[in-house]
Amino acid sequence: MTECKGVLKVRWTATEVAMLTEEWSNVCACPNAKSLKGDDLNQTIFERYNARCARTKQLRRSPLAVATQRVRMVNFARFVVNFNHAALTQGRTTWFDLSNEEQLRVEIPNEWRRQMTTFTQEMFNTFKRFILPMENAHGAKRKQIKKLRTKHKKASSQSSNSQKQRAFRLERQPCWTTREKVLLAQRWGDFMKHEQLTLKEFEGMTFDKSCTYLASSTRSAFSAWRKSRTLLSSWRFISAFNMQHQPGWFKLKETERELLITWTELPDDFDDIDLEVTMGTIPT
C-alpha cells in the first residue's frame, strides 16, 4: 500500500487565518527577517504559529498544513492586488467593495475561493505592507538562481553532478508507505529492547549515533528517528481515543472520527496510521 496519509483535513477558520497572518507578519517585520530563507523561514513561522495555538487552545496544524495555507493566502493576496489594479485602471469597483454575490461571480480557482470567507481587508493591508514584499523578494531571488543555472548549464560534468547531488538532497522526501512504517516500528521495538528504554525515555532522548539502528536503505537515521516520534505521538492519541470510544479508531469511518475527536489534543504531526502498523509492532 503506497497511499500517503496526512493530517485529517479541517477547513481553516477566520480566527486561525487571522492568527497565522499576525504571526507571519511579525516574522517579516523582525530586523533579521531578510536572513531567513526557505526552510528556516517556514520553520520560524510554523513555530510561532504553533506556540500561539498552544497558548490559545486552538487546533494545532502540521508544518505542511501551515505551509499549504500560506501558499493559498499569498496567491489570493496577489490576485486581489491584480484585481484592484485592473479595477482602478478601468474605473470599476475594487475587491473588498464588492458584495459577496459579486465576488462569487468572479472566476477564480476553487482553492483561492475558500479564502473569500476568511481573508479581510485588514489582512490584505497587512499582506501588502509586510508579507508580499518579502515573498516577492524571495521569488525574485529564485528567478535569478534559475537564470544562473540556465546560463551555466554547459559547465563541467563534475560541477553538474555536484549540483544534481545538492538538488537531490533538497528535494522533499517521498511519503512513508505503510510497509515502511511497519518495518520501522519493528526496528524501533528492537532498538528499545537493545537500549533498554521505556517509551517515556525514548520520547525524551535527543538524536545521537545510537539511532543509526533505525535507518533503512531508503531512509536516513535522522528521518527514521523523527518518524518514529511521530508514530509514537499518533499511537498515543489513537490509544487514548480508543479508551474513550467504542467502536474504536480503526473501525470508524473518517467522518465518524471527526465528530468524536478532541481537536485540541491532536498531535502537531499526527499520522493517520493503518492498523497493521500498530499490531504487535509499536513498542508498548
Class from helix and strand fractions = mainly alpha
How would you describe the shape?
A: elongated
The number of strands is 0
Low-confidence stretches: 1-7, 140-152, 164-172
Percent helix among the residues?
A: 55-70%
The Cα radius of gyration reads: 23 Å
Return the domain count.
2
For the terminal residues, how far apart are their CA atoms?
Answer: 25 Å
Mean pLDDT, to the nearest integer, reads 79
| Count of alpha/pi helices | 12
- String of helices and strands: HHHHHHHHHHHH
Instruction: Please report which band the strand proportion falls in: under 5%, 5-15%, 15-25%, 25-35%, 35-45% or over 45%.
Output: under 5%
In this structure, how is the largest beta sheet organized? none
Walk me through this protein's architecture.
Residues 156-165 have a biased composition (Low complexity). Residues 141-155 have a biased composition (Basic residues). Residues 141-166 are annotated as: Disordered. The chain contains twelve helices and no strands. It has helices at residues 14-29, 38-56, 63-90, 100-104, 110-113, 121-151, 157-170, 178-195, 199-204, 221-244, 254-260, 275-278. Helix 1 crosses helix 6 (121-151) and helix 3 crosses helix 6 (121-151).
Summarize the structure.
The protein has twelve helices and no strands. The protein has helices spanning 14-29, 38-56, 63-90, 100-104, 110-113, 121-151, 157-170, 178-195, 199-204, 221-244, 254-260, 275-278.
